[in-house]
Amino acid sequence: MAALRLLLCTALQTCVALSARAACRPCAPQAEPLKWIIVGGGPHGVHIATALLQQVPGVTTANLRIVDDNPELLHAWKTRTRDVGMTHLRSSASNHLDVREDALKKYAESSWYRRGRHVFIKYASIVGRDAHLRRTAVAGGRRGC
Question: Per DSSP, what are the bridge partners of residue 64?
Answer without folding.
Answer: 36
